[in-house]
Write a structure and sequence with these properties.
Elements lengths: L6 H16 L9 H4 L9 H23 L13 E5 L4 H12 L3 E6 L2 H15 L4 E5 L5 H5 L1 H9 L4 E6 L18 H19 L3 E10 L20 H25 L5 E6 L6 H5 L6 H11 L3 H13 L2 H6 L6 E2 L12 H5 L1
Parallel strand pairs: 1-2, 1-4, 2-3, 4-5, 5-6, 6-7
Helix pairs in contact: 4-5, 4-12, 8-9
Amino acid sequence: RNLNLSQNQQLKPRMDAFTQFKNFNVARFVPTSIGGHFQNRSPMTPYLAAGVLVTLPVLFGYRRWIQGGVNHHQQDQSGKIVLITGGNSGIGYETAKDLASKNATVIITVRSDAKGIEAVQALKNETGMSDIHYILLELDEFHKVKTFAPRLKDFLAGRKIDCLVNNAAVWMLGERTETKDGIETHFSTNHLGPYILTLDLLNEGLIRDNGRIVNVASNVRAVFNFDDYQLKNKYDRMMALEQSKLAAVYFTQELQRRLRAKNSKIIAVSLHPGMIKNQNVAKQIPSVLLPVYALISKIVMKSTDQGAQVSLYCIIIDNGDIVALHHGARSSNTRRKIFCGLPSEEGSRR
């Protein structure tokens, strides 16, 4: 800018600044306890240090994002009866524990008396509540599912449940298997079993008039294969899981449409709990890869308690609040905000 300066004099400050930038040493900004290891370092060491300094905050932020929101609806649930399938472990157990601690009557379904007794006792010990019960149910055998409604009716003795939570599921079985009814196991357990159970409870009038049906589904990206939904031609464990969860979403949408057409006050919603650490998946991983799975799951997956927050939100929030929210949205907890919405009629037709 000073026309009295020669060209070299004008460029000198710029060259000095460039030299300082070129000689910038990231290691100087690393704590002394770490910096000592940079003695006799290779030329790549500053770049590795910079990578670590940038990567750690990113991983921490991503981890916080994955954990999702927390259900802040803490209303007392006294007088309410909630039925949770598969409530002896995972998300179902955490959901049952939270509701029991809010004074709800909790009924979980299990596959054996041993699992039921163990889970109920654990829930009572952790919550200090006693109104916790179990009933046997095997969702992969249709004739056993059909016997559940009469047994639940006898147990309730004239009462009705306020919420049905279809939570139980099988996940990513390594080999294709079929149930005794000849149905692929994922599709039978994750969709057809809950489908029969839900309709039986509705037909028996065991769900309160302003009750709730909550289906734990998934934020799937699959396209349903109507020509080979049992995957007999080509089995893929991920596709088997995704199709069964997608079917649960379709079911929820059509069920809500029909309930609305009958002017029923019962509301059906589906939800995506997020990516949850799953012991059943871990059992199928070779032992040599378990440390890698443990590290990855620590970063990109939720704990069962964090995953249960979406179910709890959909169970506890008032019907009026659900209706006021955006139609067509499934409840999700992968964002910081938890939301829960009714299926749209357009989605039902699809």
